[in-house]
Amino acid sequence: MNIIKQTPEMILENWDFFANAIESTAKKIGESYTPLQFYEVIDSGEATAFNVYYADELRGFLVLTDHNDRYTGNSVLHVDFVYLTGPSLIAELEETINRIAEEASFDQIEFRSPRKGWFKYLDAAGFKSSATFYKEL
Question: Could you read off the pLDDT tens digit of each residue along the chain, which spans 137 residues?
């Protein structure tokens, strides 16, 4: 697996892929966010976007942010968004995210997803749930 950082200009050049990734994921999980909202955050420099390649084929899109935990001071790599196509690459992506966190010396990784299917992969990779958030419908 290879991830390539995307500039705002690169996203605009491949807007159809980007927009489809955001829109199809939002629909699948019942969210109302839009490609423009993601683009504006990436364009502002508050988030970093990556195209995900496997065997030289574009297979996904990843958005990461980072922050320091307000109470512990830990440096946190936050996985804001993941979109993958085709045969599952979740295990490979988890390895890639761990490598990024280790190379940049993050203290912890946070993962945002309402999809329970991620839990089995995260548990198998040694992630431990430390917080649960609920949303009123």
Answer: 999 999 999 999 999 999 999 999 999 888 999 999 999 999 999 999 999 999 999 999 999 999 999 999 999 999 999 999 987 888 888 889 999 999 999 999 888 766 666 666 666 666 666 655 555 55
Mapping DSSP onto H, E and C, the string for the chain reads CEEEEECHHHHHHCHHHHHHHHHHHHHHHCCCCCHHHHHHHHHHCCCEEEEEEECCEEEEEEEEEEEECCCCCCEEEEEEEEEECCCCCHHHHHHHHHHHHHHCCCCEEEECCCCCHHHHHHHHCCCCCCCCCCCCC
| Long-range contacts, 78-84 (Cβ 8 Å, 24+) | 78/109, 78/110, 78/111, 78/112, 79/109, 79/110, 79/111, 79/112, 79/113, 80/47, 80/112, 81/22, 81/25, 81/38, 81/112, 82/113, 83/21, 83/22, 83/24, 83/25, 84/52, 84/59, 84/60
Which structure tokens are listed for 2? 């290879």
